[in-house]
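Q: Two folds, back to back.
A: First:
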Amino acid sequence: MRDDLPPAGEDSAEEVGEPPGGHAQESAATSEYDRIAALYDPWSRSVVEDVAFYVEEARKAAGRAGVDPATPVVELGVGTGRIAVPVAEAGVGVIGVDRSEGMLDVCRARAEAAGVSKRLDLRVGDFRRPPVTERVALVMCPFRAYLHLPDDNGERVAALRAAHDLLVPGGRLAFDVFAPSPDDIEETHGRWIEREPGIWERATWDGGARRLTLDVRGQRVETTLRLRWLSTAEWRGLLERAGFEIEACYGWFDRRPYTGGEDSVWLARRP
């Protein structure tokens, strides 16, 4: 996991054994992201390097494959609108799906503040069964959101097929994922790090099972996020099983070719 994605650069991180303030209060929220909905934007404020990539893909989707240029794009895992609001500001409508109602509330407020709320259609739902009947030219799943899927390739293929089924022929799926380097695991494992002022995280890595447990803590709120990574070869195989053709696998959001490394950015096409 890169120190700057998510959520802050190495130069702003401070390592400690235990964050101040003791154990934060638990929430009865139904999603792990509901607990930190108000904390999420401050936590991820430095994550900006992917925004231009997804905005550009959304612009390209307008009119693709015979689709009406006014057709929206779909974002799975829309969260607080970190990508969706800039896309809407670029003049493209977004159907945003997320299972965290708290995150959608923040997204709604963010869109209203930006004056683009009419371009966002926010819906509560899951990647594997998105509540979308429209057919679109672009589905986006940014910020490694597919790593939240269960550690089961059948579930992963089902999620990718769900995205495939939302697309018109010639439509694209755009997403990014990562696989950590041994150095990153060694440097961050089990350590509380202050990523932003008053916002702490601790990564617990299981290299054998390829699982990351990420504890996030702010003042009076905390949550635990669980992610599961795969190799690029495995993602390629899953995409092909889901019926996609691989259009590109980049090594970063500047579209440099993937030559190995932690991050991969994918464009896959529905034939």
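A: Second:
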Amino acid sequence: MAGARGGDLFRDDGSFHGRKLATVAQGSTLDVDSAVKAARAALPAWQSLAPHTRARYLYALARQVQKHSRWLAVLETLDNGKPIRESRDIDIPLVARHFYHHAGWAQLLEQEFPDIPLAAS
């Protein structure tokens, strides 16, 4: 398990049954700073991708969410105690739809905003 820099862990007791669901790394300010630094370092490579390439990555994420939607819905329900119907029929499909939405915009950027210079077109 990848841990936080501080190495602190905490137990996540699922709201559904109150038993141990997972052991999770406790993030710190150092972890947040490290994540922001990594995101900033990755941004130029992401920006240099052609819009259709960005869309392919986002579509792939959406498909993975759909592929594992049942498992994600059960995990969401166990973690926060909401009804499975809400997780299965609303929350998880909404996650996939968000990725599809942003993938669609990545494909349309050049057409919808022709005056904005885009990298690697």
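Q: And?
A: The mean pLDDT is 89.
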